[in-house]
Amino acid sequence: MRKAISFRRYLLLGNLVLILLPLFVVGAWIAFDYQAAIDRSIRRSNERVAEAIAGRLDEFFARQRDAINRITEILTSPGLYAPERRNEFLAAVLRAQPFLENIEVIDQTGVIRWLAPYDTAVDGISRRGDAVYEAIRTTPGIYFSVSYISLQGNQPALTFGQMMGPYTVECSLDLRAINQFASRLSREFGSEFELRITDRTGVFIYHPDTRKVQEREVQSSFQSIRRDGTAPFSMVFTEAGADYLVSGVALERPHWFVLVFAPHSLAYAPLRSLTLVLVLVLLAIAVGGVAYSQLHIRRVIRGLDPLLEGTVRLADGDFCEISGYGGGFREFERVGDSFNTMVGSLRQRETELRDQEAMLEASLREKEVLLKEIHHRVKNNLQLISSFLALEAMKPENERSAAPLLQAQRRVRSLSLIHESLYASELFDKVNFAEYAERLVRETVTNGPEPSIQVRSELAHLTLSIEKAIPCALLLNEALTNIAKYAFPSTWTGERSVLVRLEEDDPGRIRLTIVDSGVGLPSDYDPERTETLGHTIMKLLARQLGGELVIRSDCGTEVVLRFAA
Asked: Which of 267, 284, 303 is the last residue of a domain?
């Protein structure tokens, strides 16, 4: 049963819940919507920043594509640009593009034909087998390699190029301009935002920590950031145990990523003042609600107190009506009127029940006396029949029928003991079979014709209904009588003992075992074909009990009866 709480507390808590819960839900919805709006604003702002930076990078690479177009013009216009002076023309292109480190023009055999700046150590060497050279030859349009650290400037660089007829143009690009541009923007963002640029493999091109660029570190969990296409994207990203709101854009060529990191906590910072206001409002409403509820609950309690006192008196047996109830509330007055009506009905019913109880007790005592008298008379009649049978057996002219008469006398005596036990007991339909079996063993074996037999009883305290007790008693009497008559002949010199065990075999099932240490059954004994009177009676009694009877002989005779209690 659930633990009860006071009505005053229940009403107070109910009022607070009805007032505060809607306010809390509305406040939580406002806070959530406000936080979501801030989150969307930060995402859109960061995406616009990333798109602007990506646009500047596209402009930077467009100038490099202009350089490729200029080199194409030099190679495809021999009338304007003499082949023997192509190194000079390439040097002019190099001077016009300050971030190009070198230009190489490679023929179809893989040998460098022209280059700027000119280097005799490089002129004429073969690029065949070089990974970047082979990638440029197999890529339609301009190919951009992954980034690397240039040996000339110790700065991030990349190689890009394009096939031009029989020639392959390969250029090295210094990325210092990108680092300078990104560093200036990072200072403008402030310390709360962080700009990062990676190549298509996640290696940093720009990072506020220049060490990560020099050591070519890779953006953590880059596969979760990487996207196909150039549409801006935003996501929540966890790095070093902190959550970040990441907005980014992917460049088409080269396939770089511009990433703007903002602490995710920025989206929650404006909620602090809003949360404080909401808490103060809720506290003010709670205090007002408590004061209002206390005033009205006190009036409700005054209207219910007479009802409570009346129920206490009713529980103590006082059927007096109550007064002064309701407290001005019509509903409580109706409850009080119904309570007084109920008290009147209970008072009348109580009087009727007491009269009926007295009648039932008198009837029960009368029936108990009658049952005791019936069991007493049945016991006396059975004892009388037993005495008549014993007297008949003692007559000289009945010497030949004395044994059957005595056998019948013992069976009648076993029934008499059942009714004697019922007469002495307070229960008129159940028998303490352990006490009964102990007495029957004592009368049949211990006080029988062979008093030297040692009897051992292991009897569990089990009660049986009279329907079960009578056939079980007759079967036990039959088994004990056979032991007394046949188990220990005069020529027997071995141990003379009998074990009677009564136990609960399985839940709800009784097991009765009678074992003797005598001569046992004849060698030709067959329980299915034996038709002696005693054996037939035992089988019939077992069938009446709905049980199982087993008779076997090993060292003596063992009779086992199993039946439902």
From this structure: 267
